[in-house]
Amino acid sequence: MDDPALLTEGDPDASLPDALAAAAADPALPAHARALLRRAHAALLAARADADAAHLRYHALFDAVPDPVSILDADGVVLDLNRAGLRAYQRPRDAIVGQPIEVLNPDLPRDHLAPVWDAVHRGRTYVIEVTNMRGDGSRFPVEVHTAGFEHEGRPCLVAVARDLSERREAEVRYRELMDVMDRGIAIHDVSGRFVYGNPAALRLLGIRQGTSLGDTANLGDWIPIAPDGAELAWEDLPPVRALRDGRLVESTLMGLYHRARRQLYWLMVTAVPQYPPGGDRPHQVLSLFSDVTTLKRDSSMFDRVQALAHIGGWELDCSTDRLHLTAEAARILEADAPPATMEAFAAMLATDDRARLRDALGAAMLQGEGFDLELQGLRRDGSGFWVRAIGGPRHGDPATSRLTGTLQDIARSKRDEEVLRLQARTDPLTGLLNRDAILGELERRMRLPGAAAVAVLYIDLDRFKFVNDALGHAAGDELLVSAAHRIGHAVGDRGNIARFGGDEFLVVCEAGPDATRAERVADAILDAFGDGFRFDSEEFTITASIGIARAPEDGDRPQTLIQNADAAMYESKRRVRNGWQRFTPALAEGQQERLRVETHLRRAIDNAEFHLVYQPQVDLLQGRIVAAEALIRWHNRQLGEMRPDHFIDHAETTGDIVRIGAWVLREACRQSAAWRDAGLGVIRVAVNVSFRQLVGDDLAAHVGRVLAEFELPGDALELEFTERVLIEDAPATLATFAALRAMGVVLTIDDFGEGYSALNYLRRLPIHGLKLSQLFVSGVPDDRSDVAVCEAVAGIARGLGLGLVAEGVESEAQRRFLIDLGVPVGQGFLFAPGLSPDEFARRVRDGGGRFG
């Protein structure tokens, strides 16, 4: 081990002299630390110079290193230790050499050499901070750099341990120095994110205690200002220049104006780029700055900055009322002939603001109080202004003979406030008032003493959801904007209009002495919806349902009045649509009744109040029962027998339809299994499925579990969906239909033709059949329109290879028409109403399932 290259090849301390020189030149370190670093630097250079000159042999170089250096074999046994190590560990040589490295660091884990050799095999130096132990048992922190080399054909390790004790102490002293020095120090990275700010930086920038520099470092809050008063570009900021050029930027004067606090700071900034170890580009920048605002206050340059910030100064001689204004203050008020006295300035203000200013001036002169006022006034040319006047006694003037302060132009901020106020009251899509604004307007009107009766029109667009679902939200938004324009044109200046939410609008107007004004406004709105709405090549007829409520008879509070108008609107929608309905006490009772229904409906399953009846589906030509549709019935002890068309709507609205639908599905499958077990064979049962069930839990998985529970084949179940599934056409819907079809479940579109349908939607879903709505079957064979619709639906079914079932067959003439049309299956009162399970089974058993 006498090759001097052993400890220089791959030596991690090759840059140590530079590091020591840089550290020794750091003015932030104490003098004795710098002296120590200089001495260490000189010793290292001298040692290495001697080694280079004389080709020092191993031990000369080994012992010249000021840090402890250990040579270890592959198992971690110490083969050699330099003199610095003997001094550092305060042990005799024979107590270390030949011993495992744990003698110097008893806290090392058992497999501590594994990561060392891993790094060495990858050609890397392994670096770790540990705590070593002296001979007397005391500990000291070290940073160990370990590299590998071969000696006499065997792998060895060289470990250099640098004592961190003094560095740790220096770091502590450095942080303490940072905290107590009166110059601001801020560090931020290349992205502009602040990493550190000392207390002086926070104080100099007016950042209150407890707030971090990063919290207030948003560039949008500050205006950087050049020495000439112009706004300073981002790329010209000293820290940005230092990072960009990689060079020190010394003693640069710049201003920072804080928008929110309306305060200006003049700073003298020095920016120092900082490089990461081994990097060639700065990774952060340190800025040192001092506050020089006081030095700049009386300079002409500062006046230009005041102009940029629209802030001027004033001083009042209380004995003469003479008012002295800076150039910027004069410009704000009136450049040609600014007021020469405070009374002349007060005369420019609005009456209320004039009184406020005089009161504030009196309090300042008599009690020494300061003031901060926002004032509005008119210049001589008739243009308006908004200013913020801040003032109070001049510092050091016990007699209060003079008042001083600032005058700031705040017209722009006032305009911004007005814009924000309007935005806060406006619906962003339609430009109408929003919900909060109309509620405030209604409350204001209802509180006015002696005010005329107020009416509320609650407007809901009919069939809006179909358009929104079919054409997308962009078309839906366009429809809402068009509807808002039509409503606005119809109402005119007779009331206030708001978009109340979704596709609902609200009109607040006077009811009128004859109590018909609101109704005339409603008629005008309905007329405005007479023409269809066109989107691209599609045209839709969108109507409106309107509810009307009047104050005070229909409610003496805004919420009550709107709630009652809403109830009237729902009644209008339920009855006719495209019409209006006045609120009546009977409607209030209807609301209470709906609430009762919903309350009982929620408990109906738990109370076993539901049961199913089964309407036969019949082969129209042969009269044979081919399937059954399960129809739900509800009997409540308090409400009595409830019609499905009454309570199903409630269940859809409240979301209870999902739980009810799951009950129907299971009960229908249970009954089908019971008929099978009774010897009737497998009878397919059709069950209606709500769209909420389809988009809720995994419908296919649920159906699979129910079929498995009752050991039924998939084709024992038919699921009927509304046309809405065609419109949605979502990937999840397609996946669910595919999974159901794979089980063998029959899939049908119920009441086909009633909603908004299109063939391109229909052909994408893997369905088996369509159900022809009773709405069209009821008019055949006499009504030509119904005949045309039935023929069209039958043609679609034949063209797509789908089954077809006609609902609502009530006469022999209808049956004959449907047979001639090629419709194979029908159901309706001609054959049977909904039957109890036993009656259905009896008809299947006694008549062979035949009718006619």
Automatic annotation (TrEMBL):
Residue intervals of the PAS domain: 54-107, 170-216
Domain PAC intervals: 126-176, 371-422
Native organism: Luteimonas deserti
Pfam short name (any one): EAL
Protein name: EAL domain-containing protein
Residues of the GGDEF domain: 452-585
Gene3D superfamilies: 3.30.70.270, EAL domain, PAS domain
InterPro entries per the UniProt record, alphabetical: Biofilm_reg_signaling, EAL_dom, EAL_sf, GGDEF_dom, Nucleotide_cyclase, PAC, PAS, PAS-assoc_C
Chain ranges of the EAL domain: 594-848
NCBIfam families: GGDEF (TIGR00254), sensory_box (TIGR00229)
Domain of life: Bacteria
